[in-house]
Amino acid sequence: LEEVRLHPPALVSRRALVELYAQQRRFDAQLAQLEAIVALVPGDAPTLHSRAQALFNLQRYPEAAEAIERAIAASLVEGGPRTRDLGGNGDTKTVGAAIAELVKTV
Questions:
Q1: φ and ψ at residue 87, rounded to 5 degrees
Q2: By CB neighbour count within 10 A (0-12 exposed, 13-18 middle, 19+ buried), where does 86 fall?
Q3: SS3 for 7?
Q4: Which helix (H) or strand (E) element contains residue 13?
Q5: Are the CB atoms for 52 and 71 separated by under 8 Å?
Q6: What gap in Å lies between CA 72 and CA 65, rounded to an integer?
Q7: Hey, is 38 helix, strand or coil?
């Protein structure tokens, strides 16, 4: 977080590189940038989701599965839809659909 506080464009630049490397199908480089972003902003659900996608594209399936679980957990923490038993007001169908959308793109 110190890097982001001292130089906020660093995070923006890294995110731009993530997109560029994905378009170029340079998933190793994309993953390296995502790892750097996760180090700066550990609970960012979209970044964790992108990390899972990169791992999947690299055919590192066990790691991708763990990463998608982490992304789902982060989404719940960030205020994503939750069922009543988790302190939310969504029903199982709504929450399940939201999680399915997250997983579908990996």
A1: 90, 10
A2: exposed
A3: coil
A4: helix 9-23
A5: yes
A6: 11
A7: helix
